Amino acid sequence: MAVISRTFRSGNSDAVRLPKEISFGPGVEVEIERKGDVVTLTPKRPSVKEMLAKLDALPKPSSIGKRPPFIAPIRKGL
Questions:
Q1: What are phi and psi of 54, to 5 degrees?
Q2: Distance (Å, rounded) from C-alpha 18 to C-alpha 6?
Q3: Which of 47, 20, 17, 19 is nearest to 31 (CA)?
């Protein structure tokens, strides 16, 4: 979907208003990439380091269950 908007000055920076139809919502960090005349905005994805930090911050389980042993099926020809 293509929409039209205009750039404007915000302090010392150029800015553009994203219309509601294509907005990311408030407070979403975006990565901006420019290749020639094409400017691409994508939501910022967390790095592996950030994801691991979030996993470490999760509460630890009170106990750990034990799985039953895996028994592989017998297959002829392998």
A1: -65, -40
A2: 9
A3: 47
**Which amino acid, one-letter code, is at 64?**
I
pLDDT tens readout for residues 26-64: 999 999 999 999 999 999 998 999 999 999 999 998 998
User: What is the spatial distance between Cα 5 and Cα 9, in angstroms, rounded to a whole number?
Assistant: 13
- For residue 9 the two structure tokens come to 């000055």
Copy the structure tokens of residue 70.
Answer: 């895996």
Every domain of the chain and the residues it spans? 27-58
Residue keyed to tokens 């099926």: 73
Q: How far apart are CA 57 and CA 74, in angstroms?
A: 42
